[in-house]
Amino acid sequence: MLDTLLLSRIQFATNISFHILFPTITIALGWFLVFFKIRYDLTQHPVWLRAYRFWVKIFALTFALGVVSGITMSFQFGTNWPGFMEKVGNIAGPLLGYEVLTAFFMEATFLGIMLFGMKRVSPKVHTLSTIVVAVGTTISAFWILSLNSWMQTPAGFELRDGIVYPTDWFAVIFNPSFPYRFFHMLLASGLTASFLIAGVSSYRLLKKDDKHAPQVTLKVALTVAAILAPLQVFVGDLHGLNTLEHQPQKVAAMEGAWETEKGLPLVLFAIPNEHTRSNDFAIEIPKAASLILTHDLEGEIKGLNEFQGEHPPVKPVFFGFRIMVGIGMLMIIVAYFSRFTLWRNKKLNSWQLKLLVYMSFSGWIATLAGWYVTEIGRQPYLVSGILTVEEAVTLVPSSNVAISLAAYLLTYLVLLVVYIKTLFYTADKAVQVEEYDYSTMPEVSNA
Amino acid sequence: MLSPEMLSYIYASLMALSILVYAILDGYDLGVGILLPIKHDEHANTMIASIGPFWDANETWLVLAVGLALIAFPAAHSIILQALYLPVTIMLIGLILRGVAFDFRAKAKTKRKQLWDTIFKAGSIISAFMQGFMLGLYVMSFEITVVSFTFAMLSGAGVVAAYTLIGSAWLILKTEGELQLKAIQWCKTAGRITFLGVIAVSIINPLINNDVYTRWFESNLFTLLLCVPLLCLSLFFIQDKTLKRLVLTPTKRAWQPFIISACIFGLCFFGLTYSFYPFVVPGQLTIFEAVAAPESLNFLLYGVAIVVPTIITYTIFSYRVFWGKVQPLSYY
């Protein structure tokens, strides 16, 4: 029988991994909807309204999954990690509180108007509601990433009798890693949504959907992806440098660097071995890691051996990092290649469309891999240097956690399959529908 | 900076307010889910449409209530949630299933629609029952005995009935014709069952719980306190009369049953909080002992002071936008 600690960790990882899939889409998809809606308001061209109507359905579905999987999180702090709130609740509490107050209610309330209120409010109020929902999702990301970053790089606090008390809220919220992690995540969301829109639009085109809307959304999505992908490399690099400064053991695990070295090679592939404390089957580029991390061929990087017993498990961080970067590179290539082809030939041929369909959820994999790097990279701590994961765990018997974990796993697995199937089924239905009848377009009312 | 004592009062009131608002608002949409007919497609669509724009925001009050417990009374939050580990899990899975079923039913293949309706209904019943079950265990100080378990089951059934009451009252307000007449019947039945439930709990609770007995029957304010159950009981009778009238004149003051139900919720909730105040974990922990650090609660209070009135304003705005009898749900 596994113990409560391990089961609780698996359960939390399962919950948060499932949850993050949906906000990752909605944070950016909300802004895509704002763009479609404003284009429609300005041009009155029905294609923008059609793009909006199709994607607002996907947004609603995705948002609902995000909400319900998010509610479980607020309970799990108490059920599985009581030590977390006991120790750092004075910091975590207000940050979570501000998220609920400034984001959740706003999103949920205006979502109702955005989804079902087009005929009941004026076009202006409707567009405004769409904007408010997008702002809400972004504010939500702001607070939760502030808290997560504080757990990585705590600041603005003091310890009294072993409990954390805030001393400077500005330093707490804008802790050292927060700006980098926040923008890294916003861009990840932008790329995830772009590739989803590109993928589903391509799917519709492959199904011989000859309407204008999927072509337009494909073009918009590829343009956005081509802009955001290189930007993400830049922000990711800054984030890495920040991590090197504040969490060098995480960077050492990402790079598979065991010994402190000047002129550290970049390990392209290897299997890190924690018993021999070295890499098996390594393929390396000499001095490249030092160049990337210190912008100097002979720069010194601290190795894992400097942090014996205090560093994270190496393999998941090492591989997670490579998966994230690998998919990121693939995204840049595909985005540029597709956008360029679209510009030259005005359309993509069937294998190019198929490639984009396969890439529909590439953002999910890269985002999850990235989160595993940063979260596992914080181990064995829950809050860097202050609280270990082990200290925070619940006293609930392991059998109970095993039951709840099994129930969540089953539920999430089913929902994930149904979500993806419904997404493409919605696309199928959109293919079959004839052009919308213009006479049913919303009447302008000032109610 | 406000003192810890003052902060305890403020945050306890806010938490109580969130729980009450949650029970009323998510109560009606859970109630509509409990009542959802599986086969009668047309009515099912109208019923779902009546809660469509609201359920999401309604559920957020639960997040706020749990969030406030977590932030302001973290020790209580962890004691309560660890004691209720499995019921919480079951309730959450119920809420997850019903939340997604709401969306899937509209988008899935037609042949699957009935399945999602069933899941929506089941999820609503499970969530409502578990909330009542946990309330029962809370009242019994989380004892694991046959008596407390039976009481919790009774309490679970009571909450299902109460949510059905307010859910059908919501439908009376939002629908017309055949469905509205049906809702009046549901409301009548649910009202009577809830009535019995409230009486049973009100008698059992002080009998098995000494502290509660003292609070009510040996209080100087006994005569004043007596007004609460009396008012509550008379509301049930007024409700019954109103429903009889509504059968004859269904368009006149269709909002009455909902307001009466909400008042019943308020009175029952007052009775409950009065029974345990100032304890946040019955018999174990008071709000003054459990309260978090003043520097954190003061910091959050700025947000509360500005944001809570704003939330109430745009919630009212949203209800006004969707005022009147329900229209078929469409995304445009």
Automatic annotation (TrEMBL), chain A:
Source organism, top-level taxon: Bacteria
Intracellular or extracellular location(s): Cell inner membrane; Cell membrane
Pfam families: Cyt_bd_oxida_I (PF01654)
Topological relation to the membrane, as annotated: Multi-pass membrane protein
Entry keywords, A to Z: Cell membrane, Electron transport, Heme, Iron, Membrane, Metal-binding, Transmembrane, Transmembrane helix, Transport
Keyword Iron attached: yes
TM region(s), chain numbering: 12-34, 54-75, 95-116, 128-145, 182-206, 218-235, 319-343, 355-373, 401-420
InterPro entries for the chain: Cyt-d_ubiquinol_oxidase_su_1
Family: Belongs to the cytochrome ubiquinol oxidase subunit 1 family.
Identification of the protein by name: Cytochrome d ubiquinol oxidase subunit I
Organism: Pseudoalteromonas aurantia 208
From TrEMBL, chain B:
Topological type in the membrane: Multi-pass membrane protein
Lineage of origin: Bacteria, Pseudomonadati, Pseudomonadota, Gammaproteobacteria, Alteromonadales
Protein's name in the database: Cytochrome d ubiquinol oxidase subunit II
Protein keywords: Cell membrane, Membrane, Transmembrane, Transmembrane helix
Keyword tRNA-binding applies: no
Keyword Metal-binding: no
Organism from which the protein derives: Pseudoalteromonas aurantia 208
InterPro entries attached to this UniProt entry: Cyt-d_oxidase_su2 (IPR003317)
Superkingdom of the source species: Bacteria
Main location per the UniProt record: membrane
Family: Belongs to the cytochrome ubiquinol oxidase subunit 2 family.
Location of the protein in the cell: Cell membrane
